[in-house]
Amino acid sequence: MIGDAANFAPYLMLFLLVLALLWAGIRVLREYERGVIFTLGRFSGVRGPGLILLIPVVQQMQRVDLRTVVMDVPSQDVISRDNVSVKVNAVVYFRVVDADRSIIEVDDYMAATSQLAQTTLRSVLGKHDLDEMLAERDKLNRDIQEILDTQTDAWGIKVGNVEIKHVDIDESMVRAIARQAEAERNRRGRIIDAEGELQAAEKLVQAARTLAAVPEAMQLRYLSTLQGIAGERNSTVVFPVPLELLRGLGSLVSAAQPGAAGAGRRAAQPDA
């Protein structure tokens, strides 16, 4: 019995060694994970998801997560094109689309993408005025996203979206913007008033031409105005004077002035 056990011991040790090696070479990758395999230090393929068998010591595997990563870009001090200092932070959405390049081409794709996002944010916003930062965020988001996507393509990264979250402005600049907005509203109000006066003047000119073409229309307008005044229950009495009468009186006065002037000159001359 002792001899049989001694003969069986090497096989047991070999079996345990093989079992340990198999256990060390088994990997399980989830649906959203991929494994980048290196054989003796050389890239030999991408595997997963599911059960992966590796040759211990000879092969190594790096896990890569393919899910979308939400990265918060820290607040950056930016000087706009019109020399206004602001603090801007943003959020970047990206994911790995090429697992092997994300491991081989860059040391740490997370840190690299974060640093690139910070420098791109400062560079792009520094080319725009403060008003553009506040009013054209969608355009700025697209510009930053396109630049990041182009730069990270060599790392196997796809930048899906970039959103600027906050643009923090100094309190004095906030008051200046409020004064500018108030002045702009006042300017628009004056322009609207002037346009209204212009339109009213044009309509009055058209009405005057229409009434001048038909003199009887003016008399009807007088009567309509009197009807409106009479319905207000006031003590005002209005006597309309026809314009023809005023024109006739004006003609008589004009005709009398030359005669009176001639008589005055004759009276002023001395007797011969």
Automatic annotation (TrEMBL):
Main subcellular localisation: membrane
> Which InterPro entries does its entry note?
Band-7_stomatin-like, Band_7, Band_7/SPFH_dom_sf, Stomatin_HflK_fam
- Where is each Band domain found? 24-181
Compartments where located: Membrane
What SUPFAM superfamilies does this protein map onto? Answer: Band 7/SPFH domain
Membrane topology term: Single-pass membrane protein
Pull one GO CC term from this UniProt entry.
plasma membrane
Please provide the record's keywords in A-Z order: Membrane, Transmembrane, Transmembrane helix
Residue ranges of the TM segments: 6-26
The UniProt entry's sequence similarity note says: Belongs to the band 7/mec-2 family.
Name of this chain's protein: Slipin family protein
Organism of provenance: Teichococcus coralli
